[in-house]
Every structure is written in C-alpha cells, then in structure tokens.
Amino acid sequence: MALVTPKRFTIADYQRLIELGFLTENDRVELIRGELIQMAAKGTAHSVCNTKLFRELDRLVGDRAVVRSQEPIILPSNSEPEPDLVIARGQADDYLSAHPQPADIFLVIEVSDSTLDYDRTIKRSLYAEAQINHYWIVNLVANQLEQYSQTYQDTQGNFGYRSQQTLLHNESVTLPNFSERSLNLARIFPSLQN
Fold it and tell me: pLDDT tier at 192 (50, 70, 90 boundaries)?
C-alpha cells in the first residue's frame, strides 16, 4: 500500500508559483507551515472593520511606522500569511525587496468572525513561534479585542502567549511600541445599529 503525503512548499517555491502565474490574487491562498491554505471569503462586517481599523492605525502611527493591510509577511516556518493588519517598522518602500519579517513587526492583527477558532489556534501558535510579541484578534462575534503578548514555548514544544487580555468594544487600548498612542475601539467595530 502506497503512503500518501502532502506536497510541502518552501517560501521560495510559493513565491515562484506566484511569479509564474500559477497563483494569483484571485486564488486567495496563504502559505502556512508549508501548506497552501484557502483563505475564507470576507463578509461585509469584516471588510468594514478592517477599513476602519486601517484608517485609525494609520492616523495614530503616522510616519513613525507603516501599516499594511492584508499583505504578506515572511515567517521562518515556511509560512507567508497575509494578516488583516500589520504595523511594521520603517516605511512602505522599505519592503520593496522583501516582505516584513518578525524582527520588523510591532503588531499583527486578525479581524475575525468565521475564522475565529483558526485565528485563536493555528495563527496564534504560528505568530508566537515566530516570536511576534504582540498579536491581536478583533473578535467580531463578541465585539471585543483579544490582546496576546509575551511569547513562550512549553515543555511539549507548543508555542503560545503568556498574557491574554480582553477589551470591550467601548474601551481603548495602547498600541505596542507607541505607548503614547491609544486606539479607541468604539471607532473600529462596525455599528451595532441597522
């Protein structure tokens, strides 16, 4: 009986598939731990929140960093996810030759409704393993922000965050590495009114 194994891709393999046109923006896939993962379709609440959040973060950090929306980052575990938002050091042109890597990243944010479980497990572990010290989930199901910080690895080799804090939709949160800047969460969640 033949053993069936999945084909794993390196970041170089993945980028070559894009260069050759085998993968396009219309394919909506991410490379996660060497596997191509189909990204979920984004609903209107997700899109509205992502737009509002990008606008607020860009206003808050100004020219002191770059805010990237749904753009790739490079992680050492043969992963090239496309988080909903990333705050990275430098300016946009600094990433002409390569996407941001963990040392460049101040904060990763996933806006989440249908992918909440995936973002809390697979993505959280992935970002912790890459030593990304600040990871947020904008939880559209409960209209709250889940804030994770302080990466660690347990004795079984699993990665996670030591600190977790939940903030409600009407609270404010300080931006990591920008202690004088606070994000008013009421400005990013889609209106609860119809």
Answer: low
* Token digits of residue 135: 């990871």
Dihedral sign, CA of 169, 171, 177, 181? positive
Residue 193 has pLDDT above 70, yes or no: no
pLDDT tens track for 115-160: 999 999 999 999 999 999 999 999 999 999 999 999 999 999 999 9
* Residue percentage of the chain with pLDDT more than 70: 97
Residue 100 within a domain: yes
Is residue 8 one of the residues assigned to a domain?
no
> Would residue 29 count as lying in a domain?
no
Arithmetic mean of pLDDT over the chain = 93
Which amino acid is it at 83? P
In sequence order, the 6+-apart residues with CB closer than 8 A to the CB of 133 are 149, 150, 151, 176
**Domain residue limits at 60:** 42-187
Helix (H/G/I), strand (E/B), else coil: 170? coil
Q: What's the structural domain count of the chain? A: 1
Residue 133, domain CATH? 3.90.1570.10
Phi and psi angles of residue 124, each rounded to the nearest 5 degrees, phi first? -60, -45
